[in-house]
Design a protein that fits this description.
177 residues, single chain, alpha/beta, 2 helices, seven-stranded mixed beta sheet, five-stranded parallel beta sheet
């Protein structure tokens, strides 16, 4: 049986092509142009930010980035397309190591049709997210917390806590002097 594509799937295909081509071009641009483009595309974009090459932000108009944020290469930020109220928010002085994935949408496994569900993700001020960590929908990373490399964070993290593992658990607390 031949699969027929409606006009909606054709438009989606064109959108995805343009989106991926845009990110390819973005990786060829110098940092000051990349910052200017992210400032235009994001819902909010602070000052003195550094977004490295080869990062991917799906639906950047649903992402807020504070001041002094550093996001390293191969980071993927997936804002939800399905819920107009959800967003991904980065506070000030956040450091994101390479290869981090942040999701604000997933599927509800209770139904066989896997309906989409979404919840905002909030990364508070002075947070450090270690390499290859995964942050799932609905998570709030408290002020000053540290997420260990390779951790899967599926629950909110209290202020100044250090979490690690899969699923991430509190392994310590920061002492700020």
């Amino acid at each position: 049986m031949e699969k027929k594509y409606g006009s909606r799937s054709w438009r989606r295909g064109v959108f995805l092509y343009i989106e991926h081509f845009s990110y390819l071009l973005l990786d060829c641009m110098p940092p000051f142009i990349r910052n200017w483009i992210f400032r235009i595309c994001c819902k909010e974009y602070g000052k003195k930010n550094y977004l490295d090459y080869k990062i991917y932000i799906r639906f950047p108009w649903k992402v807020r980035i504070g001041n002094g944020v550093s996001i390293n290469r191969d980071t993927k930020i997936f804002a939800s397309h399905f819920d107009s109220e959800t967003e991904i928010v980065f506070g000030d002085n956040v450091t994101v190591a390479p290869g981090v994935s942040i999701f604000s949408a997933t599927h509800d496994h209770a139904g066989l049709d896997l309906p989409d569900i979404a919840a905002s993700v909030h990364v508070s001020d002075d947070v450090w997210i270690g390499g290859e960590a995964i942050i799932l929908p609905g998570v709030t990373l408290g002020k000053g917390c540290i997420v260990g490399a390779g951790s899967v964070v599926n629950d909110s993290v209290p202020d100044y806590s250090i979490v690690a593992g899969n699923p991430a658990r509190i392994v310590g607390h920061r002492t700020i002097s």
